[in-house]
Amino acid sequence: MKIIVFGGDGFCGWPTALHLSSLGHDIVIVDNLSRRNIDNELETNSLTPIAPMSTRIKAWKGITGKDIEFHNFDLAKEYDRLLHLLYHHKPDAVVHFAEQRAAPYSMKSERQKRYTVDNNLNATHNILCAIVDSGLDVHVVHLGTMGVYGYGTAGMKIPEGYLKVQVVNDMGEVSERDILYPTNPGSIYHLTKTQDQLFFAYYNKNDAVRVTDLHQGIVWGTNTRETNLDERLINRFDYDGDYGTVLNRFLMQAAIGHPLTVHGTGGQTRAFIHIQDTVKCIELAINNPPSKGDRVKIHNQMTETHRVRDLAKIIAEMTGAVVDYLPNPRNEAAENDLHVENKSLIGMGLNPITLNKGLMLEVHDIATKYKDRCDVSKIPATSLWRGRH
After folding, report:
1. Distance in angstroms (rounded) separating the CA atoms of residues 186 and 166
2. Cβ atoms < 10 Å from Cβ of 263
3. Using CA atoms, how far apart are residues 80 and 37, in angstroms rounded to an integer?
4. In a domain, 25, yes or no
5. Which of these, 32, 48, 140, 162, has the minimum number of CB atoms within 10 Å of its CB?
6. Which residues are identified as catalytic?
7. pLDDT tens for each residue of 142-199
């Protein structure tokens, strides 16, 4: 297939582009390198050394013989270039990672809130508009988030996108219908993902755009089979308080002898997925598209749930690290349960990678190898959810 990966320089986008290329697909990456620019803004960097995009692509060509084409432009602003790209390449599918992905960053200040909304919503809407404008039948695979659901489960498993409800009319007659599961975003970032759902529902209904929306849990791990082939292909390892995901942060903190930073009681239950499973889920979504006229497919892209304090305990026992309980900057319940339905991707062939000592040690070893690149001052989470009064 011809596949365009929007946001293909990022933590999930880069390994996905390589994985799809390794399967024989013709890959084009579009990215404005905004994640690298945010590193400059935050005065931090990936713990692992990220090569320039031209070096990454040249290395991939040298190792595999496969070409990946790269275009540097801003989807949220350069609509004409996007439309021309679709006309020129006529992709079978596009994979949409091109959104600011960090909840803490989106809550940092009014500037980051506005940037997240402007970038994420305009990028998503421009992609959908351009597909309709082009007249092409393109399958959109979008990386969403479990965070659209919030963290309360109302005593039930969170379904995959849709909730069956009963409606009683004035005559007392009962009818059933499926609605999007009620959203409960916990940050501006999560709010943009809930709006994405409505964009998809509208363009699917009005223009029959085929969409698969993957509500992903927190990603852990760093490398995939493809990014392990050469250090020039290595994936990002974010550890700072804005972009570092909780399990990777714990493993990095243990590697440098820093206390594991648990915010609040640590009773927050989160959904998790390994980066290798992320790229596999994208492959499965591409291989199992909705038919023309089908409603938006929604899959919960996660493999397990854990309480934050339980993860900290596992890593502390594994590495000898100590645990430090800090005030929680997020506006959320101190404790929550989380039960999630995830049968669809498993039914398509996903064999989940779950938390195990070997893989966690692998991440710990990467953190140890590059620990000299760590700026300890960037570890604390400083973005506050509550307004400044």
Report:
1. 27
2. 18
3. 23
4. yes
5. 162
6. 145, 189, 193
7. 999 999 998 766 778 999 999 999 999 888 898 999 999 999 999 999 999 999 999 9
In a domain, 360, yes or no: no
Does 187 map to a domain? yes
CA distance 70 to 222: 22
Specify whether the CB–CB gap between 56 and 233 falls below 8 A: yes
Number of alpha helices (DSSP H) and beta strands (DSSP E) in the chain = 12, 14
Q: Is 65 helix (H, G, I), strand (E, B) or coil?
A: coil
CATH number, domain at 153? 3.40.50.720
- Residue type (1 letter), 263: H
Q: Which domain holds residue 56?
A: 2-238+272-302+337-352
| DSSP output for 205-259 | HHH---EEEEEE-EEE----TTGGG-GGGPPP---STTT--HHHHHHHHHHTTPP
Angle subtended by helix axes 188-207 and 110-134, to nearest 10: 20
- Residue 137, φ and ψ in degrees, nearest 5: -95, 95
- In this prediction the pTM is 0.96
Q: What tokens appear for 113 in the block? A: 């809130």
The tokens for 357 are: 């000592």
How many domains, the chain?
1
**CB of 261 within 8 A of CB of 381?**
yes
Using a 10 angstrom Cβ sphere, with 0-12 exposed, 13-18 middle and 19 or more buried, the burial of residue 26 is middle
Residue 96 counted as domain residue: yes
Instruction: Please report how the helices 53-64 and 13-22 are oriented relative to each other, as an axis angle in degrees rounded to 10.
Output: 20
CA pair distance 338, 320, nearest whole angstrom:
28
How many beta carbons lie within 10 A of that of residue 198, not counting itself? 11
Task: Report pLDDT digits (tens) over 247-295.
Answer: 999 999 999 999 999 999 999 999 999 999 999 999 999 999 999 999 9
Q: DSSP class of residue 27? A: E
Question: Which residues, 6 or more positions from 194, have their beta carbon under 8 angstroms from its beta carbon?
Answer: 148, 183, 185
